[in-house]
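> forwarded from #structure-qc
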């Protein structure tokens, strides 16, 4: 005889509006606020610590990102997926045990990452060809432990369909980074500290932010923890079964996610190393960077070093590295390397500034990717294939709609945007870098969503292989292009375009073969690309016209360089006009479907207004 008390309890399931685009909207709003706070952080920070400090900051952060991704990337996704599936069938006790086990796993990985960063800071900085990044790496080490535990609670909340705690905790992190980080950086610069230690002070704000955000998530967890007694019919799986289940999902996702960070670290180290090699071995490349660095000092350092070499010895980076490995290091070799490192830090600092803007669209799309896996997994667990297919198609459409105009805008307004947001950097150098990175924006955003779609349908290993292939293409291309004297650092963003374009093509090919009821790709891409092209032309025309009207004149001739105010007005006006053009085209061309809108908050009302 069966008893009702022994049957699994079913809990009220949130509607798809709340679990997918409703959650995505919350995360997106939080990310927008975080990025706005980040602008108020990074703009003055670049002015405080300068180009070299910016390079030190980003090199330290790249190391942190890799170890953080290894420690936390796959685990919160696995937790949210398993929690969502358990909630779909009313297994409350299972949800609680998943959280306990995941916390132990996060804490273990966080402690290991902390030890690597804190005690291996000098070695990691040397690997990045930037010895001044070591203080920043050490300052970030404690943050890995905090973020590990933070990710467990975020994954738990997302698996329960609550995205607000994640958004609020991210805002708390950003505010602490802004207030504590900027204050420490400013204080250290005024105290006469070098750029590397000033960057480390800015990074302390990140560590403080993660600790405060963790306190908030703990408070939120205890407030919202389910209070009903455990069901006798809800027997959770054994610890080792849950542990194995988490690892089965987390390891492939971690490897896939880590590929981006690992490739970024390898690429950053490689780009800076190749820049130093080109500066030493191919002086003709100096013409690319006139006005960016003082090459008289470099020439003097090279002449002083070559004077210590036997006559006829070839000047190569390999020979310099051999001398740097001596004990003691020859003084002329040490001075030359310090000069090369300083110039490469200036160049890479400008590239890092462009990367900061380029990463904004990717961060916004992360709101959709964070919602795809638990939403699709929950639908599949309820045997709702149609709902899973609808969410999959809508996620791809919304991502293309958001990514295309951002890519076009960055491509057209690369230099004006850099001059507006980072006036302390060299817009003539960083602007073209941002324009090229803009082309990669569409590819990387779509790749992230496609990876989430594949993972949500159970194909967790395929994105790993795809990212590996793309990363190899990026590294090979950058290694061979950056050394060219007529291209130099301007070739670095080309690796991003090649990497993520290849990944997206392979992702789409796999989705077309393995995902049931897969969406039609041509309608998804064609209209947004066309609308973005039209928008880009409009933005280009508006900016060009206003920049001429607002430029200063001297003796009847137009001054080539716009004033900061004129550039700001021209850029913001062009962006506003571009937004209007694109929004009108979205409605006129019918790029949003009624099904898409029904997955959004107030979607039915919006659909009626738009007569869909």
């Amino acid at each position: 005889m069966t008893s009702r008390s022994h049957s699994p309890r079913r809990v009220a399931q949130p509607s798809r509006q709340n679990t997918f685009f409703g959650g995505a909207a919350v995360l997106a709003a939080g990310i927008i606020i975080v990025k706005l706070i980040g602008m108020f952080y990074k703009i003055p920070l670049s002015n405080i610590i300068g180009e070299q400090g910016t390079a030190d900051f980003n090199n330290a952060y790249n190391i942190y990102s890799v170890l953080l991704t290894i420690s936390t990337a796959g685990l919160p996704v696995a937790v949210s997926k398993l929690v969502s599936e358990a909630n779909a069938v009313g297994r409350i006790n299972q949800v609680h045990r998943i959280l306990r086990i995941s916390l132990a796993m996060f804490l273990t990985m966080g402690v290991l990452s902390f030890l690597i960063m804190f005690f291996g800071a000098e070695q990691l900085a040397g690997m990045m060809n930037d010895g001044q990044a070591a203080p920043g790496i050490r300052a970030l080490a404690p943050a890995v432990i905090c973020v590990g535990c933070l990710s467990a609670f975020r994954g738990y909340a997302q698996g329960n369909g609550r995205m607000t705690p994640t958004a609020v905790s991210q805002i708390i992190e950003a505010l602490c980074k802004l207030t504590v980080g900027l204050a420490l950086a400013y204080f250290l610069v005024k105290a006469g500290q070098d750029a590397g230690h000033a960057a480390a002070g800015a990074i302390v704000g990140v560590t403080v932010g993660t600790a405060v955000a963790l306190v908030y998530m703990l408070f939120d967890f205890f407030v919202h923890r389910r209070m009903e007694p455990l069901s006798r019919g809800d027997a959770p799986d054994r610890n080792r079964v849950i542990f194995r289940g988490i690892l089965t999902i987390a390891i492939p996702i971690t490897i896939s996610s880590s590929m981006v960070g690992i490739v970024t670290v390898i690429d950053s180290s490689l780009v800076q190393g190749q820049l130093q090699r080109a500066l030493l071995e191919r002086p003709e490349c100096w013409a690319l960077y006139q006005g960016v660095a003082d090459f008289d000092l470099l020439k003097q350092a090279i002449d002083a070093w070559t004077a210590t070499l036997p006559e006829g010895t070839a000047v190569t980076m390999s020979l310099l590295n051999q001398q740097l490995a001596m004990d003691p290091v020859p003084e002329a070799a040490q001075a030359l390397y310090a000069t090369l490192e300083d110039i490469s830090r200036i160049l890479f600092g400008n590239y890092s500034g462009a990367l900061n803007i380029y990463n904004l669209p990717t961060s916004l799309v992360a709101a959709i990717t964070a919602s795809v896996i638990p939403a699709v997994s929950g639908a599949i667990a309820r045997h709702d294939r149609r709902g899973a297919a609808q969410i999959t198609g809508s996620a791809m459409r919304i991502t293309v709609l958001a990514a295309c105009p951002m890519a076009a805008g960055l491509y057209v307004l690369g230099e004006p945007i850099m001059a507006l947001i980072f006036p302390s950097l060299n817009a003539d150098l960083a602007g073209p870098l941002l324009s090229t990175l803009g082309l990669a924006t569409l590819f990387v955003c779509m790749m992230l969503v496609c990876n989430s779609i594949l993972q949500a349908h159970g194909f967790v290993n395929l994105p790993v292989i795809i990212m590996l292939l793309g990363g190899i293409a990026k590294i090979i291309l950058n290694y061979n292009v950056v050394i060219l004297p007529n291209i130099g650092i301007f070739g670095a963003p080309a690796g991003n375009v090649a990497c993520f374009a290849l990944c997206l093509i392979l992702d789409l090919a796999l989705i077309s073969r393995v995902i049931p009821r897969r969406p039609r790709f041509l309608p998804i891409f064609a209209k947004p690309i066309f609308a973005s092209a039209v928008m880009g032309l409009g933005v280009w025309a508006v900016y060009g016209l206003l920049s001429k009207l607002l430029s200063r004149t001297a003796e009847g001739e137009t001054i080539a360089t716009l004033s900061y105010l004129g550039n700001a007005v021209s850029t913001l006006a062009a962006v506003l006009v571009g937004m209007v053009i694109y929004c009108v085209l979205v409605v006129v061309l019918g790029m949003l479907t009624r099904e898409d809108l029904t997955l959004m908050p107030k979607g039915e009302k919006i659909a009626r207004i738009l007569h869909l």
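QC bot note: The chain has 21 helices and two strands. Confidence is low (pLDDT under 50) at residues 1-21, 553-562.
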